[in-house]
Design brief:
The chain has helices at 15-24, 74-87, 107-112, 160-172, 188-195, 208-219, 251-264, 281-290, and strands spanning 2-10, 29-34, 62-68, 100-106, 121-122, 127-131, 144-148, 179-182, 201-205, 228-231, 242-248, 265-277, 294-301, 304-310. With 317 residues, the protein is α/β, with parallel strands linked by helices. The chain folds into two domains: 2-117, Alpha-Beta Plaits; 127-310, Vaccinia Virus protein VP39 (Rossmann fold, 3-Layer(aba) Sandwich). Strands 10-9-8-11-12-14-13 form a seven-stranded mixed sheet, with helices on both faces. A four-stranded antiparallel sheet has the order 2-3-1-4. A three-stranded mixed sheet has the order 5-6-7, covered by helices on one side. Strand 11 (242-248), helix 7 and strand 12 form a beta-alpha-beta unit.
């Protein structure tokens, strides 16, 4: 089967938004190459396994590459993609040149081209992300391995927004917590939560491709099972009470999620969220406070923010 590859030349701050545009345009899979993913790979920090210079990567900016099946007539949708990328400036995001390039690619090229960028990386004190095709032995007693195959749709789990949520989970999980992962993508946050000691974990994503990808990655991490996963739009129709809700999604999508998260958290429960570019931080913080949350902690990597917010306990008499 032949696919059409569409690549958007952009900036790091816009990769999540550009990925959403391509996915919304009918892409079956998205690959992200972001120079900022490699800025934190310095010898000794978190005990990384590889140095950035040893991995072929972009030195500046970012590229988001999407793959469209034969039944999508790409020339017809390219002008709309270009327009939507350029409109990101109106939302405070810099898309850079916004150049859009398309080319044909066959299954074999598409399935293997990105693997050269994917190496084991120690993300936090306890968590190391390992590609499923690489044999790797733990180097420290506390080290927990997350085996991932990003396949068609998802990245390596090392984007700053994902790193922020992995750090937040490591900070907040003490053992036995019930967790909902909204917009699970590859399933990396759900897997991490279980490996860190969480109890019941539910994961949801609007995209069935994401659900299928997460299911496959969960199989690669038997120590993380069981995880309940399904297709759902945010927390629509979900009415429960859990200890933690985690979401690594676009800031614009976090806004309608906030009241849903508040409803589905126990008093004292925590909402961990990222995908927040600097220009959107005040919007998300204000939305959280207006919906009853207390903002307890802010995490940051470069232009990306993560927030740990708490649903207050009821006042004691």
């Amino acid at each position: 089967m032949e696919w059409t590859q569409v690549t958007v030349i952009t900036e790091s701050e816009a990769v999540e938004a550009v990925s959403y545009i391509l996915d919304d345009s009918g892409a079956t899979g998205v690959k992200i190459e972001d120079s900022k993913d490699f800025h934190h790979l310095k010898a000794g920090k978190f005990g990384e396994i590889v140095a950035a210079d040893s991995i072929p990567h972009l030195k500046t900016g970012a590229q988001v590459t999407a793959y469209f099946p034969q039944d999508v007539f790409v020339p017809e949708i390219l002008p709309t993609i270009k327009q939507r990328v350029e409109q990101l400036r109106e939302f405070g995001l810099n898309p850079g040149s916004g150049q859009v390039v398309s080319a044909a690619v066959d299954d074999e090229d598409w399935a293997t081209a990105w693997k050269k960028y994917y190496k084991p990386v120690r993300i936090t004190h306890d968590l190391t992300v390992v590609p499923e095709w690489i044999d790797y032995e733990v180097e420290q007693p506390n080290e927990k391995l997350i085996h991932l195959d990003p396949g068609m749709a998802f990245g390596t789990g090392t984007h700053p927004t994902t790193t922020l949520m992995l750090q937040a989970l490591e900070m907040e999980i003490r053992g036995g917590e019930s967790v909902i992962d909204v917009g699970t993508g590859s399933g990396v946050l759900s897997i991490a939560a279980r490996l860190l000691g969480a109890g019941e974990v539910q994961a949801y994503d609007l995209d069935q491709v994401a659900v299928d990808s997460a299911l496959e990655n969960i199989k690669l991490n038997p120590d993380a099972a069981p995880i309940t996963i399904g297709a759902n739009s945010l927390l629509d129709g979900i009415h429960t009470q859990v200890d933690l809700i985690v979401a690594n999604i676009l800031a614009e999508i976090i806004v309608p999620l906030v009241p849903q998260a508040f409803e589905n958290l126990k008093p004292g429960g925590k909402f961990l969220t990222s995908g927040i570019i600097a220009d959107k931080f005040d919007l998300i913080k204000t939305t959280l406070i207006e919906n009853g949350f207390e903002v307890r902690e802010t995490l940051r990597i470069k232009d990306w923010y993560g927030i740990i917010a708490v649903k207050p306990l009821p006042d004691e008499d």
